[in-house]
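tool_call: predict_structure(chain=1)
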Amino acid sequence: MWSQGRLDSPAPFGPGTYPPPRRLVSNLDWSDRRITDRTSSASERVHMAAGAVVSDDNRCLRFLRRHPHLELALIPAMLGAVLFAVCWLMYGPPEFTATVSSFDGLDPSHRAAGAPTFAVTLRATNRRMWQFCFKPGNGSAVVAYAGVPLARADVPGFCVPGRSVAKVRVVATGDGLGLPAALHERVEAQRRRRERVPLTVRVRLDEDRVVPHSVLGWPPMLLLCEAMLNGRPAGGPPRCPGFGMGF
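tool_result:
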């Protein structure tokens, strides 16, 4: 028999007898135990989460049973939201670009013969199904360089039919003669370097006869367009971002 004492003093055994097997606890056994414990904890967490979801579903069902007419009220609200989105897509404002086709009177003020003038062309692209109109009398376009207004023009009322393009041409004129000396020198320096002189065209428009905008009393639209004094950008004039001016 195998001694129950120290390992270095085994008891003698005869032929045909063997020491009793001893189970060695390895690191693999401890890893298996850890994996089993983690799996059990994860299973418990999944069951708890499932129970919470079921509990929330039960609360929703109980709430709907207490208010049986709530579903009937939600259906018109959802249909109204979808209808508003469809109307917005159908009656949304056109896309605008602005170009300056010609100009005059950009001499320095001490030797200018006239006021600065710019021929501005607004191009409106209506991608919607119905026409889009703007009121006459309140529209305006202001041409500026480096944040300094140079000329102004009234924009007449016009309509853009559905899925079409309309162009509006105006001539913006300044109040004084020529340009201030510092501003003229800055413009001429860019032109001597053969750079394109950037201009800003600020356009104000009032929407008219447009659903649902006229029903909602939509505020005037402000467009901030980028244009060039001498030529166009390589990719064409950029789209003018539009903003609501408030009531």
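agent: Confidence is low (pLDDT under 50) at residues 1-10, 24-36, 46-54, 211-216. Proceeding to next step.
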